[in-house]
Amino acid sequence: MHIFEGQARVPLKGWQQAAVAVGSALGALMNPARADLIAALGETTGKLAFQNLLDRMKKSHEGRIILQERPRVISSSVGHAWDLPANTFGAAYAKFMGSRNFSPDDRPPVRFMDTEELAYVATRAREIHDFWHVLFNLPTNMIGESALKVVEFQQLYLPMCLLSTIGGSVRMKAKQREYFFKYYFPWAIRAGMSCTDIMSVYYEKHFHEDLELVRNRWGILPAPDLKNLRPPSKSQ
């Protein structure tokens, strides 16, 4: 059974796609917590990018396996990560999710892609986002999310990533913005250029491996450890 059977996909004409994109962009700027609006923006503005990602995955051995097996990052398939040794990638993912009370089942469904294959690529990019947080050692605050969007834009070429980075930096307080552009933005440029194709990694197959080992293998440059620096306060 195809994983998207029974899931609604909404075909859009050109003007409808533009209307959804504009409406989603405005809504997301006003309320960044609306994951459904951000998802709709990514789909309606990123169809060419998703097609390029699909083509790229087909050229990769591991990417082809992902496309054939279509793994889902949902509780029933990644729950074993909570039982893995502390040094492993899977345990780091479980700690990341548990400490934030996140569930892998909370991602909004893909609705606006033209084909089942493209819908899966969009779903995969959405569902492995938290793996990237773990690997790049990024928090889920505004600075961390904006930095990860810089990495994602270099890797995925999704317009939504660029728009999210711009929107995030605009919403930051002055000191936060200074902190972001001084430390995180330069790092994100280097990290996005140095790592492997992050869409063509079957992450779940590597849960049992040492976190630092997989980072090295995939050319992952973790975010700088700035614990000894005083971050800007929320009131600034």
TrEMBL record:
Cellular component terms (Gene Ontology): extrinsic component of mitochondrial inner membrane
Cofactor: Zn(2+)
Domain of life where this protein originates: Eukaryota
InterPro entries: Coq4, Coq4_euk
Localization per record: Mitochondrion inner membrane
Known EC number: 4.1.1.130
Biological pathway: Cofactor biosynthesis; ubiquinone biosynthesis
First-level EC class: lyase
Chain sites annotated for binding Zn(2+): H129, D130, H133, E145
Predominant subcellular localization, coarse grouping: mitochondrion
Function: Lyase that catalyzes the C1-decarboxylation of 4-hydroxy-3-methoxy-5-(all-trans-polyprenyl)benzoic acid into 2-methoxy-6-(all-trans-polyprenyl)phenol during ubiquinone biosynthesis.
Family membership: Belongs to the COQ4 family.
Subunit composition and interactions: Component of a multi-subunit COQ enzyme complex.
Protein name, UniProt field: Ubiquinone biosynthesis protein COQ4 homolog, mitochondrial
Species per Swiss-Prot/TrEMBL record: Picea sitchensis
